[in-house]
Amino acid sequence: MYIAASNRxxxxxxxxxxxxxxxxxxxxxxxWQNFGGSAPLERAREMILKSFDCGITHFDLANNYGxxxxxxxxxxxxxxxxxxxxxxxxxxxSTKAGYRMWPGPYGEWGSRKYLLTSLDxxxxxxxxxxxxxxxxxxxxxxxxxxxxxxALQTAVRSGRAxxxxxxxxxxxxxxxxxLILRELKVPLVIHQxxxxxxxxxxxxxxxxxxxxxxxxxxAFSPLAQGLLSGKYLNGIPESSRAAEDGSFRRSMLSARNxxxxxxxxxxxxxxxxxxxxxxxxxxxxKPAITSALIxxxxxxxxxxxxxxxxxxxxxxxxxxxxxxxxxxxxLNIWAGEGQAAD
Length: 342
Known about the structure:
Layout: E1 14-16, E2 23-25, E3 27-30, H1 41-53, E4 58-60, H2 71-84, E5 92-97, H3 112-126, E6 131-136, H4 145-157, E7 161-167, H5 171-183, E8 188-192, H6 206-213, E9 216-220, H7 241-244, H8 255-270, H9 275-284, E10 291-294, H10 299-306, H11 316-325
Helix pairs in contact: 1-2, 3-4, 4-5, 5-6, 8-9, 8-11
């Protein structure tokens, strides 16, 4: 029987999420990869429970996480029921809807029909009455933004979610979403964009909008899907995402990006950190960033990431060196996804 570590809250730091009462751990665990139907249950269970033992209270999911889609929510729901049920009130569970989940015109994007139906399915898979955060997973140019945001309002008003967020919306879309939700009396609490040393698109206006609107920010893919973990310093491992050429495209391993990774690894070494630890610390230094959302295939990777919190300070010289070796590497594969087909 699982017994949570008594000192778990002494092992993590927390930050206020925008203009809200919600405190989030500086590191959250994402279940995008390695928690689906083909994932070893005991390995997933170890990662989730040991993360909680270290004060990671936020577990981030989406309806399509797997593979197959939905299986990550089912796996998490089973672990929650068997091991973490007594700690439900200590957890922040988030899920999203936006990507394709079932055939036909109502199985993806941003309509009221899809979002609320998907949320009901997610709650059933996770065996929950509510989620703490429900996201619009991507902007839908073919659905009125008022409709998408009103669906998020309904999720809160109906008790199926406590807070709402958006993911991968650009600065203009984010500001408009915040305005609509403010008028609906359900504030936009959090934005989840991709962000890393080699994926810096949010620095072109989005961070400013989040600060002005007082919206929290949790950065996903802070290690650029493993590119900043150090695993690609000496080629492409057979077990890596790049070897599969899926969400991590081989084109990301350009000569320029690999040169950047090697230079950044050297800077991390002088700081007494691994490349992964420096990459996470660099993100968390930004005042607008509430949390970094990490993924993992085994516990030791999570443990390494937690070590980043020991040193999140950078001097001016370090930041100048990092900027010189960390140009945007064209890694934002989620850009421009909001153009739904007619």
